[in-house]
Amino acid sequence: MAALATPPPRTGLVVVQALRKKHCAECRGGPVALLAPENGAPRCLDCADLGHLVFLPRGDTALTRRAREESSLSAVVVRFNRRKSRYERQGVLVEEAALARAEERCLADAEARRRRRVRDARRRAAEDVRFTDAFAAEIRRLFPACPAERAREIAAHASVRGSGRVGRSAAGRALSEMAVTSAVIASVRHVDTPYDRFLMNGVARHEARRRIAGAVETRLREWRGTG
């Protein structure tokens, strides 16, 4: 009977996932894939008093941790990686009831996280509505002749969360006059002038802005009530 190389010391019991199936040194049963090394000789799980445990593959850290917490007896399963010349963890053996309890805890946590995500999404949505309202109100303060619906459209576009637009910048969140005015100018440029058409026709951006500068300024004066 070939001896089974003992894996490096670990906390708790260790079971080896053999590269080649071997027979148990005690009961001569096998060949078996999982062996518990004792004094350099392989024992099957039943002879090692581990046969009642179930295998939980690695991958879910939370489930593994909780299954080991719930299980009064557990073992780490390792396999030798010839290319790297080292043993690598493959999973754990735990009591079946313990695994079931761990799965229930993880499911409960998943539901709690889902509910938290829903609450957070609702909170962010409410914050976004309040911010858009404040941004639109600031537009109307700076540009009192700007139609209310248009002010709302500009505010909603500028303040989309994660968009990187001026409304989400630090200055935009502070409702600075420069940021609010920049959002209005951008809207006028794209909606009320042929700026986009110039760009599509190959006109350089700076030249396109120069061509529409007068139209933009006229609209801003109009909305300020000074035109």
From TrEMBL:
Superkingdom of this protein's organism: Bacteria
InterPro entries named in the record: DUF2293
Entry-linked Pfam families: DUF2293
PANTHER family: DUF2293 DOMAIN-CONTAINING PROTEIN (PTHR38113:SF2), PTHR38113
Residue ranges of every copy of the DUF2293 domain listed in the record: 138-224
Protein name per Swiss-Prot or TrEMBL: DUF2293 domain-containing protein
